[in-house]
TrEMBL record:
It comes from the Bacteria. Residues 123-133 have a biased composition (Acidic residues). It comes from Actinokineospora bangkokensis. This is Uncharacterized protein. Residues 78-133 are annotated as: Disordered. Residues 89-104 have a biased composition (Low complexity). Residues 105-118 have a biased composition (Pro residues).
């Protein structure tokens, strides 16, 4: 398996510092504007590495967090607001058992008391002829 290229994005005064790392080599650049512009800058740095080392898998990180990068980048591409949540402000999630709520598997839907009558062969043929016309 090939070693990955890691790209870390850090906000810096209305822009981004983009750091690309691979196999002990580090390239750093600054991109003004939004995260999409920073990604374009990263792609240029990645192409520089690829010219020497060949194409490698790339992992994009926002301050070291791949999930945060994905959420921020995709939100920005879609034109949606994105705000990084502070883990200290996020309330802990309690499992359902601890919250006192019983957990039960989904029940299959109940059968109706009166099923629909079967279609007679002649009626089925009439319906087919009408549809063909």
């Amino acid at each position: 398996m090939q070693d990955a290229v890691y790209v870390d994005y850090q906000e810096s005064g209305g822009g981004w510092v983009v750091t690309v790392k691979h196999d002990g080599e580090e390239l750093v650049d600054r991109a003004d504007g939004d995260l999409v512009s920073a990604r374009d800058c990263a792609n240029t740095l990645i192409a520089t590495l690829a010219a020497v080392h060949g194409h490698r898998p790339v992992v994009h990180l926002l301050d070291g967090d791949a999930v945060a990068y994905s959420a921020a980048y995709l939100s920005e591409r879609a034109g949606l607001p994105w705000k990084r949540e502070d883990p200290a402000e996020t309330p802990a999630v309690e499992p359902a058992e601890a919250a006192g709520e019983p957990t039960q598997p989904d029940q299959p839907p109940a059968e109706p008391d009166h099923p629909a009558p079967p279609v007679q062969a002649e009626e089925a043929g009439d319906a087919t002829e009408e549809q063909a016309v």
